[in-house]
Amino acid sequence: MEKFNETDWRSAGVASSRKLPGPATTAGAGGGDTLASRSFYRVTVVLSGDLLNIEFRDGRETLPWKSTVGEVDWSEPSDPLHRAVNVGKEVFEEVVTFFLDRPDAVPQPEDDSN
Fold first, then answer.
1. CATH of the domain at 33
2. Average pLDDT over all residues of the chain
3. In angstroms, rounded to a whole number, what is the distance separating the alpha carbons of residues 78 and 81?
4. CA-CA distances (angstroms) from residue 10 to 16, 74, 94, 102, 109?
5. How many domains does the chain have?
6. Taking the CB of residue 92, how many other CB atoms lie within 10 A of it?
Protein backbone atom coordinates (compact mmCIF):
# COMPACT_ATOMS: atom_id res chain seq x y z
CA MET A 1 0.00 0.00 0.00
CA GLU A 2 1.37 3.41 -0.99
CA LYS A 3 1.87 5.81 1.90
CA PHE A 4 -0.15 9.01 1.69
CA ASN A 5 1.89 12.20 1.92
CA GLU A 6 -0.20 14.97 3.52
CA THR A 7 1.76 17.75 1.82
CA ASP A 8 0.78 16.45 -1.64
CA TRP A 9 -2.80 17.68 -1.16
CA ARG A 10 -2.19 20.84 0.84
CA SER A 11 0.27 22.50 -1.52
CA ALA A 12 -1.25 21.65 -4.87
CA GLY A 13 -4.74 23.17 -5.02
CA VAL A 14 -5.94 25.72 -7.54
CA ALA A 15 -9.40 27.25 -7.76
CA SER A 16 -11.28 28.55 -10.78
CA SER A 17 -14.80 29.42 -11.77
CA ARG A 18 -16.86 29.36 -14.93
CA LYS A 19 -20.16 30.74 -16.10
CA LEU A 20 -22.18 29.16 -18.93
CA PRO A 21 -25.02 31.29 -20.31
CA GLY A 22 -28.37 29.59 -20.66
CA PRO A 23 -30.33 29.11 -23.87
CA ALA A 24 -32.41 32.22 -23.23
CA THR A 25 -29.31 34.43 -23.36
CA THR A 26 -27.76 32.83 -26.44
CA ALA A 27 -30.65 32.89 -28.94
CA GLY A 28 -31.66 29.29 -28.35
CA ALA A 29 -28.20 27.72 -28.44
CA GLY A 30 -26.98 26.59 -25.02
CA GLY A 31 -23.75 28.08 -23.75
CA GLY A 32 -20.99 25.50 -23.54
CA ASP A 33 -17.35 25.15 -22.68
CA THR A 34 -14.56 23.60 -24.76
CA LEU A 35 -13.75 19.91 -24.96
CA ALA A 36 -11.52 18.90 -22.05
CA SER A 37 -10.55 15.94 -19.90
CA ARG A 38 -10.43 15.67 -16.13
CA SER A 39 -6.80 15.04 -15.26
CA PHE A 40 -7.08 15.64 -11.50
CA TYR A 41 -9.39 15.22 -8.55
CA ARG A 42 -11.66 18.22 -8.04
CA VAL A 43 -14.45 19.63 -5.90
CA THR A 44 -17.20 21.67 -7.55
CA VAL A 45 -19.65 24.02 -5.80
CA VAL A 46 -22.69 25.10 -7.85
CA LEU A 47 -23.52 28.80 -7.47
CA SER A 48 -26.38 28.95 -10.01
CA GLY A 49 -27.97 26.83 -12.70
CA ASP A 50 -30.35 23.92 -13.04
CA LEU A 51 -29.44 21.60 -15.94
CA LEU A 52 -26.33 20.76 -17.98
CA ASN A 53 -25.76 18.18 -20.68
CA ILE A 54 -22.35 16.50 -20.63
CA GLU A 55 -21.42 15.75 -24.26
CA PHE A 56 -18.60 13.36 -25.20
CA ARG A 57 -16.34 13.68 -28.22
CA ASP A 58 -16.36 9.92 -28.88
CA GLY A 59 -20.13 9.93 -29.46
CA ARG A 60 -21.20 8.14 -26.29
CA GLU A 61 -24.61 9.03 -24.89
CA THR A 62 -25.04 12.59 -23.57
CA LEU A 63 -25.50 12.67 -19.80
CA PRO A 64 -27.92 15.17 -18.26
CA TRP A 65 -26.81 16.69 -14.94
CA LYS A 66 -29.51 18.36 -12.84
CA SER A 67 -27.88 20.72 -10.39
CA THR A 68 -29.00 22.56 -7.29
CA VAL A 69 -27.56 25.81 -5.96
CA GLY A 70 -25.15 24.94 -3.15
CA GLU A 71 -24.56 21.41 -4.42
CA VAL A 72 -21.04 20.11 -3.85
CA ASP A 73 -19.60 17.39 -6.10
CA TRP A 74 -16.36 15.38 -5.85
CA SER A 75 -15.00 14.29 -9.26
CA GLU A 76 -12.22 11.82 -9.95
CA PRO A 77 -9.90 11.97 -12.97
CA SER A 78 -11.38 10.65 -16.23
CA ASP A 79 -10.01 10.38 -19.75
CA PRO A 80 -12.89 10.92 -22.16
CA LEU A 81 -12.94 14.35 -23.77
CA HIS A 82 -16.20 16.05 -22.86
CA ARG A 83 -17.87 19.41 -22.52
CA ALA A 84 -20.73 20.84 -20.51
CA VAL A 85 -23.59 22.57 -22.34
CA ASN A 86 -26.12 24.61 -20.40
CA VAL A 87 -29.58 23.42 -21.46
CA GLY A 88 -31.32 24.78 -18.39
CA LYS A 89 -33.33 27.94 -17.80
CA GLU A 90 -30.68 29.67 -15.66
CA VAL A 91 -27.07 30.74 -16.13
CA PHE A 92 -24.82 27.98 -14.78
CA GLU A 93 -21.99 29.12 -12.54
CA GLU A 94 -19.63 27.03 -10.44
CA VAL A 95 -16.45 27.33 -8.41
CA VAL A 96 -13.99 24.47 -8.79
CA THR A 97 -10.96 23.50 -6.72
CA PHE A 98 -8.52 21.22 -8.55
CA PHE A 99 -6.04 19.05 -6.60
CA LEU A 100 -2.89 19.13 -8.76
CA ASP A 101 0.11 16.82 -8.52
CA ARG A 102 2.73 19.42 -9.50
CA PRO A 103 2.97 23.24 -9.69
CA ASP A 104 3.04 23.41 -13.52
CA ALA A 105 0.05 21.11 -14.04
CA VAL A 106 -2.86 22.27 -16.24
CA PRO A 107 -6.08 21.71 -14.22
CA GLN A 108 -8.34 20.80 -17.13
CA PRO A 109 -6.43 20.38 -20.42
CA GLU A 110 -8.41 21.42 -23.49
CA ASP A 111 -8.52 19.46 -26.73
CA ASP A 112 -6.15 21.09 -29.21
CA SER A 113 -6.61 18.63 -32.08
CA ASN A 114 -8.98 20.89 -34.06
1. 2.60.120.10
2. 75
3. 9
4. 17, 17, 22, 12, 22
5. 1
6. 27
Q: Rg of the chain's alpha carbons, rounded to an integer?
A: 15
- CA distances to 3, 32, 88 from 71, rounded to whole Å, are 31, 20, 16
**Which of 64, 67, 71, 21 is closest to 44 using CA atoms?**
71
> Residue 83 belongs to what domain range?
6-99
Q: How far apart are CA 8 and CA 100, in angstroms?
A: 8
Q: What is the pLDDT of residue 74?
A: 92
pLDDT in tens, 69-107: 999 999 888 878 888 888 988 888 888 888 888 888 887
CA distance 33 to 73: 18
